[in-house]
Amino acid sequence: MQDAILNDGTSVYSTEKMQAARNDPCPCGSGKKYKKCHGAVIALQPAAQRACGICTACCEGWVVGTIEGHEMKPGTPCFFRGEGCCTIYERRPKEPCRDFVCGWLAPDSPFPESFRPDRLGVMIVRTRWRAKPAYILRSAGRDPDEALLAWMRDFTAKSGAPFFYEQKGERYGFGPIQFQQEMLAKLEAGERLW
Is the dihedral of CA 18, 24, 29, 32 positive or negative? Predict the structure, then answer.
């Protein structure tokens, strides 16, 4: 399509969108083929996949169950936890191992790189509240500190996703008003928050 020439001799660019074929000259006038100029396809880098690496925080003794005849209980690390690895990784059981997804490791994780559990000292476990995401902060060497709790409160204010945490053996929850009301009702009924 060419520019229109008005009766007074001035030219006006067409407002119609030009659709150039990939091998046509680029409409911008660069002299390059459209596919090498404004029609170039830019390959997007896939998001970096996080990996456990040597982190074994999920095996540090917060889960309850039995793995190959060995009882799992809070405060006791997994019998099969090796130095920076799981010694039965290839044959680890579905429950609790294969079904567990670390909140930091999850593909859609909202948590920064620095929240890797073995670095943070706290593991973030995904759970649900009213069919929406919620999180439990579990000790992986230490209780959540004020800096982490402040980050989580800000995250909750922006996302609406509540979280639970434990400090010095006491359990707490933080979230929207409906969440707070439900947690108070649980406490009044003598139920645990999680």
Answer: positive
